[in-house]
Design goal:
- By secondary structure, this protein is mainly α.
- The chain folds into two domains: about 130 residues, Arc Repressor Mutant, subunit A; about 60 residues, Arc Repressor Mutant, subunit A, CATH 1.10.10.
- It is built from 13 helices and five strands.
- Strands 1-3-2 form a three-stranded antiparallel beta sheet. The chain has a two-stranded antiparallel ribbon with strand order 4-5.
- A hairpin with an 8-residue loop joins strand 2 and strand 3.
- The longest helix is centred in the C-terminal third of the chain and has 20 residues.
- The radius of gyration is 37 Å and the shape is rod-shaped.
- It starts with a helix and ends with a helix.
- About 10% of the residues have low confidence.
């Protein structure tokens, strides 16, 4: 199997066969195990290992693998005693190409064109339903936008944040990370932690917070602040202060004016006291 083609086919298949985030995480864990095993037709792995790799409880693993089997993503058979179940992955990339697996339980035709037409019909139904676009899948967004190939660790992290917040917020955090040119899960998770700490639980909450933040920044920039002209620091003074009238009497311009004023005062004093 080709890892990238298999993952791309998996998300193409999700458009017509939706899965819970737990089932998606379990599928990625099974793909990871089989990849390490060298892509065996059949392989076994303990439920306890899947619990660790997918970040799920044993009960959730059992429910998720049943869902994956019913919808034709995997097949498995249990064994007696403490023996681990035997799994096999459906080659979804071959299914899309035209070779539908015998394990698909939805009774689709083996003709690939029928599957493609069904995909187009379902996709249009999703897009046109209530005039709302289909939700973006965080796992698919991660791989299609240059963050890297999803392993079991990242899959577990994405699933946890989808449950704590929502799929939409996880995708939005990836978009914000992309806009900053920092396509790393560490940066994405830092954004999610910040939102979670601020109590932002919906896309509307985040957008309202970001708008308020921008308005505050704009207000700070509009305040009167000193600036530098050349090497000298110049204080910005309002116009009304520059035109303030002076209450002080006019000072004499030179010594002659001062003597004239003194003589006039002496004359006035003599007239008052002859």
């Amino acid at each position: 199997m080709n890892y990238i083609k298999l993952i791309n086919a998996f998300y193409d298949r999700l458009e017509t066969n939706s899965l819970s985030t737990s089932a998606i995480a379990l599928w990625h864990a099974l793909v990871h195990v089989n990849n390490k095993a060298g892509w065996q037709r059949e392989f076994s792995v303990a439920v306890s290992v899947l619990c660790i790799k997918a970040g799920l409880s044993e009960r959730t693993v059992n429910n998720a693998r049943n869902d994956l089997k019913i919808k034709g993503f995997i097949d498995f058979r249990s064994r007696k005693g403490n023996q681990a179940a035997i799994y096999s992955l459906v080659d979804l990339s071959a299914t899309i190409a035209g070779n539908l697996s015998d394990n698909v339980s939805d009774n689709l035709s083996d003709n690939a064109s029928a599957l493609i037409k069904l995909n187009e019909t379902k996709r249009n139904e999703i897009i046109n339903k209530d005039d709302a676009p289909a939700k973006e899948n965080p796992f698919r967004f991660y791989e299609e936008n240059g963050f890297g190939v999803i392993g079991s660790y990242i899959s577990e992290k994405i699933s946890t944040w989808c449950e704590d917040l929502s799929d939409e917020l996880v995708v939005l955090a990836m978009k914000r990370s992309t806009e900053q040119g920092k396509k790393t899960w560490r940066y994405v998770e830092a954004i999610l932690i910040d939102w979670f700490g601020k109590g932002l639980k919906t896309v509307a909450d985040v957008e309202a917070y970001e708008l308020e933040f921008k308005e505050k920044q704009a207000q700070k920039q509009n305040k009167v602040t000193p600036y530098r002209k050349g090497s000298a620091r110049v204080e910005v003074v309002p116009e009304w202060m520059q035109n303030k009238p002076s209450d002080e009497p006019n000072e004499p311009a030179n010594i002659k004016d001062l003597e004239d004023r003194k003589r006039k005062m002496e004359q006035m004093f003599q007239q008052i006291n002859p």
